[in-house]
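Quick question, first post here. What does this chain look like in 3D?
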Amino acid sequence: MRLRRSAVASRRASSVKADVIRVRGARVHNLRNVDLDIPRNRLIAVCGVSGSGKTSLAMDTLYAEGQRRYIESFSAYTRQFLQRLDKPDFDEIQGLPPAMAVRRMQAHRSNRSTVGTVSESIDYLRLFFAKCARLSCYQCKAEITQQSPQTVSKLIGGLPKSAKLMVAFETGWLDIAERAERLAELQSSGLLRLICGDQEVQLGSTERDQLASSLPTAGRVWVVIDRLHGGDTSPRVSESLELAFDRGFGQASLFINSAESDSSAIDLNATTGKPRTIGSQDWQQLDLSSRLICTNCCIEYPAAEPRLFSFNSPLGACPVCEGFGDAMMLDMDAIVPDPSLSIRQGAIAPWNGPAYRPYLDELLEMADAIGIPVDMPFSRLAKKWIKILLEGHQKTGFVGINGFFQYLERKKYKLHVRVFLSRWRRYEACSSCGGTRLNEVAKSYNLQGHDFTELCSWEISHLADFLRSLTFEENEQSVAAGPLSSVADRLNYLNGVGLGYLSLDRTIRTLSGGEAQRTLLTSALGSSLVNMLYVLDEPSVGLHPHDVAGLAKAIQLLSARGNTLLMIEHEEALISKADWLVEVGPGAGTDGGTVVCSGPLDQIPAKQSLTVDYLAGARTIPIPGKRRDTDGPWIVLSGCCGNNLQQVDFRFPLGVFCVVTGVSGSGKSSLVQDTLSGALLWKLNKTKVPTLPFRSLEGSEFVDECVVVDQHPVSRSSRSNPVTYIKAYDEIRQVFAATIESKTRNLGPGHFSFNSPLGQCDNCKGDGTLQIDMQFLADVYINCPVCHGRRFRPEILAVRYRDRSIADVLNMTVREAQLFFRGAAKVQKKLQVLIDVGLEYLRLGQSANTLSAGEAQRLKLASHLAAASQKHCLFIFDEPTTGLHTHDLHRMLGCFSALVDAGHSLLVVEHNLHVIAAADHIVDIGPGPADQGGRIVATGTPEEVALCGESLTGKYLREHLAKTRKPKQAT
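> Answer (accepted):
Ran it through. Tokens below.
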């Protein structure tokens, strides 16, 4: 009976594992003993307000445990080379399949990261190209093929039987002694027939004196291996050819009697046959090679292999730019930022600092001898003088600007020198490869006349059409089918998510956030894995509502293969496509960490889930009843033509909340971040920032400061925390330093910093934890046994303010600290900013690198709010709703209104319809991505843009306004 019950229990356990992922007692970060059953092979949306614990559950628990179990299956030796993962804190997880995560992509600064490399499409294209491409010499353009005994014997078998053939290889000698040695070697091998010039020489029957007189003292001859007839298919033919290739070190010659054969029947794709007269007969000599050699140019090529077409491999990379496609050049615009200045006034910026001022002094002293006017504006200097400034003057010993930077090149092992050098340089397309990254040898291979770099430069949609149109011979079909199918699949996925207008060689750092996110997702979609757990971290980030439909279709396709998809998401249109909803909450931080509801989306009751309420329209973000006037000053940026911008004249009002919209890839970032922000920073601060081309900027005099809030991480250091980021910790340390105990012990503000040797624990150096290297196992972190995780020395912890030590204060939440520091107006003022942006639940000492994306965005906003001055600032926000639930938008929009009411201006790049609908003025870029966009489609209030038929934003905004303004609405 016990055995039977045990078997039943075992079957039940196995059925649970097969049908659901069973989580019990999850306690990672703020999760509070979460118990949850998640169905497998479904599309599950994990929702909740920012900071509620979504990422802790999906990424830090389920994905981390799936990865850890996979890594633990390897040997201890192998695990030392893999990423080390700690076991998440939970009681039990059953039914967890192997896991893969698609995280939100941060900006790639390297040129080596491209659409092709990230989506892995280019890897399969290289394999396909290596198998199917043909080789042509890059100098004479002659086609080069690789012969073998089998291909040549097939040719001989197809010739007429009347044709006479000789199979030979070439040899030679340098003097009489080497000639005697070589002839003796040939005779001992049984090879007795030579072709020397226009004579045929017999080694066996010729007298030595006569033989010596018929052969040159030094030179080349052909040794005949065998004489054959056309149509011969016997094994003797292949054996003779193999011997000829072997003795000729990969090269052989085939002599065909022209009188007995039709030369037009010869098709070997080899070098054109050379006419020869041997004896009294006419022959045609075909030079054959088992190596890829152009006999016209004497260039040997490597065999085609995937790494030959990789710019990350020394075999294929351009030797000048090393595969980057760019070469670093001196930037004269940076070296001479103000040409109206003279040399004496400091026109040459690198020589204005005290470290390199002697170079300027030397030039001023030698100016008369060199003949350069140093008091004339730099813009008026003649070309001959500028040439001397750059190249130097040999007679006087003046090294010039080029010589100065060449000197610094020898010192660039020093960090400060490398930083200094980077200020005066810019990148240009490599002069050798033209920016294609590959060398001439790699580009000598082609497919129907197109080399590898050409295929990578085409639009993905065009490349997919080209590959579909290819036809192959029967013997090539089986070789090309596999790689071609893999390439086509990946290109189809890129097309499917709306990226068909990109090219495979497009660098990731030039993409918008939405384009980069979808490119990364393609690597998962292109795999043929099944029964996997895919964890997607906000896949809709950076996507316009128009782009979400294509993304949803691709995600559903991945789920339909038999995979479990867990997506952390806030986009309502994408959540509505989910099969199952898990909401974590109800609040954030310590107020969250529990599962509010879990079940099919259509079965979750009203008022149980914030997400469902917003989806159903029971809750909405209210639309302002009246828009702010735009009668004030405007900023006008004219002639913007960088990237895909089509001579755009960008106008927007100041003193209001302005939003820039458009589909992903339409040119929003190119216009706002890459053009406007740099132009303003140059005008306001005289700071040289790389900026896309534009004609003019007007209205900058109405702005005192420009602040850019982008999506870069707050900090990667565990020592950064919310109060240090908003500069509130300085005021807190001042409060502790002002206590009587501190004054008695002569302690200043620096003693209350865990980053200072004055107050930090000597054992852990202020970290609070110690890292123990377990060699083959994952590193272990333990609380410092001296300070017990409190970071400070005992004498610092002994100082109390209102019976709390500095460590106790850092463990408080923002809300608790706001009440605790009553009377400390400066501290309360800065903490109030964190409360205003909805971060009252964070602990003051929480590491900034543990914050969610939404928390990090709001912390940046709080930092600028805390530092806001009376000056008129233009705040430029890049998709501030990233990581925010719809419910979080109330406070964010409230902060935006507070900034505008305080006299500042807001320019926000955004896709969220709730934020767009709350704007005072909209500038819509489009109408499509890439070449289909790059121009202004519509401007005006949300109501005015909604009426524009050409605007895709207007289409979705019209539906959103109609839905939100229904009589049944609530906040």
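The chain has 34 helices and 35 strands.
The radius of gyration is 37 Å.
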